[in-house]
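Ticket reopened. Same input as before:
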Amino acid sequence: MSIGLDNTSYIIRLYLLCDVSGSMHGVRLIALNRALNHALTHIQRSAQSRKVRVYVNALCYSTYAKWYCNDVLLEQCYWQPIEQAQGISQLGQAFKLLASRFKTLADSPFDSTNIVLLFTDGKPTDAYQSSLQQLLQTRIGQNTIRLGFGLGSDTDLECLQAFQGTSVVPVFTRLAPFKHQLTHSLEHALQLGYLRALKSLRLSI
Amino acid sequence: MNQEIQTILRRVLQRYGRDLVKQPSLCDAYLADFLPMHPTIRRYLVKALQSGIVSQMLPEPDPSKFMDLSKQLARVTSIDLPQAREIIQYWAHALASNPNQLIPTLTTNKPKVLSTTVLGASVLTMGLLLGGGWAFYQWQATPAYAVATVVESSDLMSGAKPVFIEVVEVTNKAATVQGQSTPNTQGLSFVPIAQATLAMTSNTAWAATTENPSASTLTNLAEPVLPNALANLSPEQLQRFQQVQHTQQLNQDALNALQHFVEHHQRYAQKKQSLQTINLMWANTQQPYYQQQQQAMSGQLQQLEQQLDESLGLYNTALQGLCSVVNGDVLLLDTIQGSSLQNIIKQHVSECQANQVLALSREQMIQGLQMLQASN
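Engineering reply: fixed in the latest deploy. New output:
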């Protein structure tokens, strides 16, 4: 599989958008923490075997959005559980913050494949659509792999569908199997990202 | 009614505007964030919005429509009427410009069916007529209204069972209680709760003379607005009235503390279960993540234990006050009734004595709650 490129060329950036509003309080947040810990530990092995550098970024949003971790190499990434869920769901804030990051990265000489995962129970309280458009209009935003995960039986699918761009969104009404599903999805997304990265590299060669 | 829900709903409308009522999904989103611990109530609150029942309460909730709205909601959501009434009460409290004015209205039921009242009144009338002709002549001589009313007490107030009341005479000027008169069914009306409370003070009826009661004329328990009536009470009756009010206040304090205790206990039980799972995972995997989770969960459990103790302390204080006031008085004890939680309070009060230092332990309280759950 090696095509004579060094490892730095294979960069995949993983963006985890985590809803930490009041509605995620309790089992949902516990399930999310557990699933992310499980999935990130699991994909470390597969990333190593493929000689891909995966950087993990996490963004938590409720009334405000803020970065939870920034460009942490997957091998060094240990998921610190999010402890609190409170405030209202301002999804638009998260999209804006991510869009600003994508704009900054657009100037970077290193190209990367980007995977954005959104974890929420839906029900945003703001008009997130314009911010989503803003995100999707960035150069990186157009080419990201986007996956939405609904948590809880009363998940509002609208925002997840809009984010993902497809109508099929996995919703986890039972939270117990979530970590396995997330691991599986992340594996799949990484594989896709890896193939994209490979394709773009071949094209550039 | 849960005060936390009541307060939060009102605050949400204050902060994000009453227009939320026209946007059920947005309102649902806010409530999901602010009331994550009460998903069922939230669902019904939103259902009331979606079905257009809440919009019928605009611009200002009209207490006379509450029963109809509750019935509508019960039909739409298939919940039972008391629960539907509670949902309507939450919305009424949130939408009212002055919720304090609503309190007696919200907690007082309408009189029983007219026919029941008329029947009861007729029986009493017959008895009274047979009892003495003097009453008849006196009635002719004094132009006073007298009504036999069946009053159903409120959740807040007291004996939630209907309290039948003897026929009494009430003039517009003074609250003289005399046991003679002929009932006048034209005067049948909604008896304000404070008046019913007053009736209890003398263990007789208090007839309503208000022709068209409205929210503004209804009285607030905390601020009795029957100065004429109060001024004409004997010192013993006044003392009794104050006793009843004090009991109700303490009852409410105890109920609030108990509600908090129940909520904290539920969270405590859930977290304890989670800790067991985490312990198991740690034993099997030895992953540091689970060890961290163990520590975090233990900290949360300790916090919850403190909150449980605080709630219990408040409950014990209120209960001690109740015991001192009630002190074996059956009538006063009967004012503590209604919801299942209030029944627990009543049971505790009936078991204690005045001057007794109460220190119900957490285990005793949990045991009581479990027994209640089992009986339900």
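Residues 1-8 of chain A have pLDDT under 50 and may be disordered. Helices of chain A lie at 27-49, 91-106, 129-137, 139-142, 157-164, 178-204. Please confirm and we'll close it.
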